[in-house]
Amino acid sequence: MTGRHRETRNGRAPGPGRAPRLGPEVRRAATVVILGATLSFLDTTIVNVALKALASDFGTSLDTIQWIATAYLLAVAAALPASGWAARRFGARRAYTTAVVLFTLASLLCALAQNEGQLIAFRALQGLGGGLIMPVGQIILARAAGPANLPRVMAVVGVPLVLAPVFGPFAGGLLLHFADWRWIFLVNLPVGALAVLCALRLLAPDRPQEAAPLDVLGLAAVSLGMAGLTYGFGEAGRDASAGTFFALGAGALLLLLFVVRTLRIPHPLFDIRLYRDPVFRAASLTTVFLAMGMYAGMVLMPLYFQSVRGEDPVATGVLLVPSSIGAAAATWLSGRVVERLGGGRTALVGAALSLAAAVPFVLITAGTPYAVVAAAMGVSGFGAGLSVMPAMTSAFRALDPQKISDASPQLNMAQRLGGSLATAVFVAVLQNGLDEADATAEQRMAAFTATFRWSLGAAALAALTALLLARAQRRARHRGRTSRRRATGRAPA
Q1: Strand stretches in 304-426, DSSP E
Q2: DSSP string across 121-186
């Protein structure tokens, strides 16, 4: 039996690659971060189930009401670039607690909204808090865990990301059935209060560090740039007009100006030179396209079950369970698989499974057996669970630990940007098809089929970038072995 496959009494392989046992500080930090992540992701999935009901209640169209989801994602993306600065300037625990408080108070305002305009605005405010929760939480966790424990710890923190689509739609369906849509926001209040209490009791106070002044111009450029691109792509899927091209051009120009400014000023918002590392660059691209596929499923599948199959919100929540069962199982396994295969190869396997599972959705009809749909959703969820967190872990492990506060907001921004683009574009394409269709299920199904083709394209791009990530990691390992041989005076084998 080789050293790689020997096991100790606790079932873990020994050797230098084995991560040490998680200490109490890591477990406490993980508990706090999981609560915050659950609060953020659970709310997103609950709202997705309610989009159809909200459109009906406010008497507006689906492509207007989807901005309740997109505005949240855009606000998250706007807050993300400032998360590393906030953690340094105010201390990670204080920044994290403030973000949870803001998210919870904004949830209360959402519940009190009187029209779709107010709800979209309050969702954006909610997103500002949500945008700080996950990256600051990852900074706290990465500092406590250290590089050796990152695969297992990140896999644990990824559980809310994949379990939220189970409990979110089901909880949203129950709340819509027995109460009304306002309760999908009121339910955040006790969870937010518990998250704040745990953060104050379980996290040790950390002192603020020296932080340069916040680059306000850079923050405005990157935030408005992402908003312009998201709005432009969403409108392009519906009606390519002069305003659409203006939004796309302005968004691209603002992002270009942000890059130029970041490279020239002494204290930028974050260090985009991290993208010079091929592993970090490939991991970031993979994160974008994986997020597009993941958020597409979170938005499109509830609408498919309700608009084509005529299911109510409660039944829709139940029908979405297979996807998250697969995702939860894969996420639980992903930390161990990463320790054996590496993050890049693990992400590649997951992305390939997601690509294979995306094909049946292009072929399903209004009468496809639920067992077939459930099987495809289960494989798709398993692929997402096996790829999302390993891709992010690969990015963190490629960098010096001191760069984590710069890497975390950029990776989360990539994930949320992919999600907001997918939500805006795919729902716009879907609405465009529904506007031209009659009331029959078959014609509505044609609109979904066209949208699922876009989702298939995103899955193909995710698989391609995951392949690039695996190759970049392999080359990095080869360079590392060559450097060690030279340092010890050994000739290459």
Answers
A1: none
A2: HHHHHHHHHHHHHHHHHHHHHHHHH-GGGHHHHHHHHTHHHHHHHHHHHHHHHHHHHHS-TTHHHH
Tell me how far apart the alpha carbons of residues 429 and 255 are, in angstroms, rounded to a whole number.
25
> Could you tell me which residue, 154 or 26, shows the higher pLDDT?
26
Q: What is the pLDDT of residues 154-191, one digit of tens each?
A: 666 666 666 665 667 777 778 888 888 899 899 899 98
Long-range pairs for 358-361: beta carbons < 8 A, 24 or more residues apart: 358/293, 358/452, 358/455, 358/456, 358/459, 358/460, 359/456, 361/452, 361/455, 361/456
State how far the Cα of 380 lies from the Cα of 360, in Å rounded to an integer.
Answer: 10
Task: Convert 299-323 to b/e letters by CB count within 10 Å (16 or more is b).
Answer: bbbbbbbbbbbebebbbbbebbbbb
pLDDT tens-digit series, residues 297-351: 877 888 899 888 888 878 887 888 888 788 888 887 887 888 888 889 999 999 9
Q: Look at 493 and 300; give whichever has higher pLDDT.
A: 300
Structure tokens at 7: 């096991």
- Identify the residue whose tokens are 């396209």: 289
pTM: 0.72
Angle between helices 216-236 and 242-264 (to 10 degrees): 150
Long-range contacts of 209-217 (CB under 8 A, 24+ apart): 209/88, 209/89, 210/88, 211/85, 211/88, 211/89, 212/85, 212/266, 212/267, 213/267, 214/82, 214/85, 214/89, 214/269, 215/261, 215/265, 215/267, 215/268, 215/269, 217/261
Nearest to 18 by CA among 340, 288, 326: 340
